[in-house]
Write a structure and sequence with these properties.
The protein is an all-alpha fold and 285 residues long. The protein contains 12 helices and 2 strands; from the N terminus they run H-H-H-H-E-E-H-H-H-H-H-H-H-H. The longest helix is centred in the last third of the chain and has 30 residues. The structure holds protoporphyrin IX containing FE (HEM).
Length: 285
C-alpha cells in the first residue's frame, strides 16, 4: 500500500482557543475563492458554488490565516463526497437534493413506467461497468486501489447470476449499449491517469447502488418482476458494516491527498451522475 501521511489536527485545536482572531473576509472573497476552486460546468456553476459558499465556515486556525472548512470535512473526506453527491440529486430523488428535474430518471421512482427490456439493458450495462471497475481494482494501476479489493460490495458476479435467471425465463440478453460502453471506456482511461477522479466514480457507483439503487430495485421488481428480488440487491454480510469499512478506507486513502486533489475528486461527482444517469435512463427505454 502507498504510504499515507495522516493529517495532524492537534495544532489547529490549540489555536482555536485564541481570542484575537481576524474577522472573516467579505463574502465576495469567498465566492471568487470557491468558484476558482470548484470550476464546475456551466449548469452547476450557478448552483453548486453558492451551495458550497453557503456552507463554508471560516475557522480561525491562525490569527494571520483564516482557514476555510469544506462541508463535511471534519468527519472525513467521504462526508465531503457525500455532501456534493446529495446536492446533485433532485428533491424527488432524495430529501437533500437540490437539482432541478430535467431527465426522466430524475422523477420520483414511484411514478416510473419501467419495461423489462429496458431493465435488462440497464442490468447488462451496469454489469459492464462493475466488470470494468472490479477489473481495475484487481489490476490496481495505482497501488492505493488495492485497498478496495474484496470489500464485499462487488456486484459483477451477482449481476451474472441475475442475467442467467432472465435467460432461463426465456429473455434474450442484449449486448451492452452505448451508455455502458462509454462509461466503461471512460473509467479505464481515468483509472490509469487520474486516481482522484477515478476514486470519485468508485465511491459514487457503489454507494449510489446501496442507497437509491436498492430503492429502484424494489420498486421496479414490484412493477414488472412480480416482486422477484434480484441478486444485484443482495450482499453477503451486513451491508452497513461493509459500507463503513469502505468509508474508512476511502478516508484513509484521501488523507494523503492535497486540498487541490480533494477538490479535483469532488469536481468529478457531476460526471459520475451524468454517466450513471445515462445508464439508469435505460430502465425507462
Ligand atoms: C433515480 C435515481 C436516484 C435516486 C432515487 C437516489 C436516491 C438516493 C437516496 C434516497 C439516498 C439516501 C439519502 C439518505 O442517506 O438519506 C441516496 C444517497 C446517495 N446517492 Fe442517490 N439516488 C439516485 C441516483 C444517484 C446517482 C446517479 C448517483 C451517483 C452516481 C447517486 C449517488 C448517491 C450517493 C453517493 C449517496 C450517498 C450514500 C451514502 O450516504 O452512503 N445517486 N440516493
Amino acid at each position: 500500500m502507498a504510504s499515507l501521511t495522516p493529517i495532524s489536527h492537534s495544532h489547529s485545536h490549540s489555536l482555536l482557543k485564541r481570542p484575537n482572531v481576524r474577522p472573516p473576509p467579505p463574502p465576495s472573497f469567498f465566492s471568487s475563492f470557491i468558484l476558482k476552486d470548484f470550476p464546475y460546468s456551466k449548469t452547476l456553476s450557478l448552483k453548486l458554488p453558492r451551495m458550497l459558499t453557503r456552507n463554508v465556515v471560516v475557522s480561525a486556525t491562525t490569527a494571520e490565516k483564516p482557514r476555510k472548512r469544506y462541508p463535511g470535512e471534519a468527519k472525513g473526506f467521504v462526508e465531503e463526497m457525500r455532501f456534493v453527491a446529495m446536492k446533485l440529486h433532485t428533491k424527488e430523488q432524495a430529501k437533500e437534493g437540490e437539482k432541478e428535474v430535467k431527465q426522466p430518471e430524475e422523477r420520483p421512482v414511484q411514478r416510473w413506467e419501467p419495461s423489462v427490456d429496458g431493465y435488462l439493458k440497464f442490468l447488462v450495462d451496469s454489469k459492464l461497468v462493475y466488470d470494468t471497475l472490479e477489473g481495475i481494482i484487481d489490476k490496481a494501476p495505482f497501488p492505493s486501489y488495492a485497498e478496495f479489493r474484496d470489500t464485499g460490495l462487488e456486484r459483477s458476479e451477482k449481476l451474472a447470476k441475475d442475467l442467467q435467471w432472465f435467460k432461463e425465463q426465456g429473455y434474450t440478453i442484449p449486448e451492452p449499449s452505448s451508455p455502458g460502453v462509454t462509461y466503461a471506456e471512460y473509467l479505464k482511461e481515468l483509472s490509469e491517469k487520474d486516481p482522484q477522479a477515478f476514486i470519485c466514480h468508485f465511491y459514487n457507483i457503489y454507494f449510489a447502488h446501496s442507497a437509491g439503487g436498492r430503492m429502484i430495485g424494489k420498486k421496479v421488481a414490484e412493477k414488472i418482476l412480480d416482486k422477484k428480488e434480484l441478486e444485484f440487491y443482495k450482499w453477503d454480510g451486513d451491508l452497513s458494516q461493509l459500507l463503513q469499512n469502505v468509508r474508512d478506507k476511502l478516508n484513509k486513502v484521501a488523507e494523503s491527498w492535497t486540498r487541490e486533489e480533494k477538490n479535483h475528486c469532488l469536481e468529478e461527482t457531476e460526471k459520475s451522475f451524468k454517466y450513471s444517469g445515462d445508464i439508469l435512463r435505460l430502465i425507462l427505454s
